[in-house]
Amino acid sequence: QMHVVETGGGLVQAGGSLRLSCAASGRTVSIFAMGWFRQTPEKDREFVSAINWGSDITYYSDAVRGRFTISRDVAENTVYLQMNSLKPDDTAVYYCALASSIGRYDYWGQGTQVTVSS
After folding, report:
1. What is the mean pLDDT of residues 22-36?
2. d(CA 3, CA 48)
3. Which single residue of 16, 99, 107, 111 has CA 20 to 30 Å from 28?
């Protein structure tokens, strides 16, 4: 079984920064991509960012493009999300997910809370 664990959430003031980390461990599987999603009680889970493990191509939602940066450490099976210029609207539980093949995220973390105060 593969495990995905997020760390790095917390409370920050608007305009501040946080860095999330997500480490994959356990049974060895091929990683096609890893991504970040977020969810609030008022909204469905939404895509934030993803990175193709082999090509390093990155993807961002319009809401975070230009403020968030996703990166990866292939040797450590870890993905990072650097979040700058945070806004109260970024407040959510952030989930990391791993896709072992195209089009499907198979493994999900437990989520980490990010709270941005105004």
Report:
1. 90
2. 20
3. 111
